[in-house]
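Quick one: Transmembrane 9 superfamily member from Ostreococcus tauri, structure tokens please.
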Amino acid sequence: MGARAIACGCALALALALATRAEAFYLPGVAPVDYERDDLVFVKVNKLTSTSTQLPYDYYSLPYCKPEKVKHAAENLGEVLRGDRIENSLYSLEMRYDDQCKVQCRRKLTEAEAKTLGDKIKDEYRVQMILDNLPVGMTRYIEDEKGTRKKYERGFPVGFSSTDGKRYVNNHIRFTILYHRDPDTDLSRIVGFECVPFSVKHTYKKWSDDKPVLKTCDPRSQVYVSEASDPQEVKAGEEVVYTYDTLFKESDIRWASRWDTYLLMADDEIHWFSIINSMMIVLFLSVMTALIMLRTLHRDITVYNQLETAEETQEESGWKLIHGDVFRVPGNYVWLSVLSGTGVQLICMATVTIFFAVLGFLSPANRGGLMTAMVMLYVIMSYVNGYVSAFLFRMFKGQAWKMNALRASLFYPGIFFVVGTALNILISRQKSSGAIPFGTYFLLMFLWFGISVPLTFVGSYMGFKRDPLEEPVRTNKIPRQIPPQPWYMHDIVAVLVGGVLPFGAVFIELFFILTSIWLQQFYYIFGFLALVFIILIVTCAEITVVMCYFQLCAEDYRWWWRSFLTSGASAVYMFVYGIVYYNTSLVVTHKITTFIYFAYMSVLSLGFFILTGAVGFLSCLTFIRAIYSSVKID
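--- reply ---
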């Protein structure tokens, strides 16, 4: 009896569903959506984005059809920082059932609404939507040696402008839902979410809030929206009717591979060229370093150790003569230790983030996951910052470790806080969803002062408590006079020359990273990024060691800060490249966008300077300790 009752219930439910489908196809309406129905799938709206303004806005900031109660989806930290505002909508569909000319609502535009809508169209805003965790995309095809391949453009335009300056809104959306059907169970899963927007000036025979009958889109009369339809102009007093179609199409794409089209990169050859180019730079530097370490240094150390008299020793020249000054404490050693600790913190954060991204834990399917991971890992790695900065601080004979820990915990986050607060004020005045809410602001402050700062102090206590490194040679009380240096060994020239190669190893990949940030594209080639990051670390270490050796051979023992600046100078080229990218790849229409761009590029370039500088300094410190430990000095 129980099995029969269940079977009868299922048959009755299927019959009701088929009846409902038949009615919905022929009699579209604007009846309230029943969100409790299990056979309906709802499209969620996200935000409005523009590459011209870089200011995201809430979907319902435009005069779109609104549900009776707008529900906000739970968002992680990364989504909030990106300006995502995921909400419910009136777009609903039934699996594997085509539904056309479905009416949402009609809106008569006020003067303010028409102006807002026209401004968004002028600034080329695009609508972002989500279905089953897939972003909506417009299909385009690319041709290469692999054939014709499909690629998605994220979102669809709010509208378009004509040559005479009139603006038209895309008020009809044709959704194409790709699904993969399991032949064994006949169950279907969504594997694609495509759309084609249209602008159509709808007219209707009569309007009923339950079942309006349109003249311009009526399945019963075989009248459908097309590109030949009269467009809907944006003008005060105009009545806009919002409609949509849902078309289902079976696909061979499996659910596990449904993101492949979104993540399609048409420039794999460019990435491989970048990797090969960077590998050649590393090979060149490795050969130079090997020659210095295995031939020149080995010969110098052997000859120097064989000298027996003081007169013979004094006749020697080069790096051996400055052994009594090479470990002299540098000026501003407090900030050198702070910058080095912060650089190691950034290196650890980047390494762990890229590692998990390569394993697939931070895929775009997990919206905001990458940014959330970076923020949390930066906070956790504060312990490493405190440890390294305090260890170096004590090596420099510093005593006030608590003040050093305070500087380490406040320096880079403080710059981020000042710049971010200024940008947040400007963005909030524009009423953009990119403004950080108060609750998120409080959470960030808690992560900083409640977790990051205490971890920095704990790391500083442990690092300062450890025994400092013993200097392999004694330091003279009176500094040695530095001989005149050739022009090519002056600080500015040497630093700028040293920063070219690290930047040259990463600048091609930097283009794709900037494109993903500022042109709203997916970035998922973390395997390439991991290789480039390793090459960057190796290049920074090797070029700094080579330049440091040349400096010591010129009997200039002021290597501490120059080693940091040599590899850190690559950030100067990064910022200059950012200026070039701004002028060649971005189309900016607002002054505030320019300020946002260069504010973020300044902070990112500073972080790149600290990261690469720390690699160079620590590599040079290891190199110098190694060579002077091999020299016999009485």
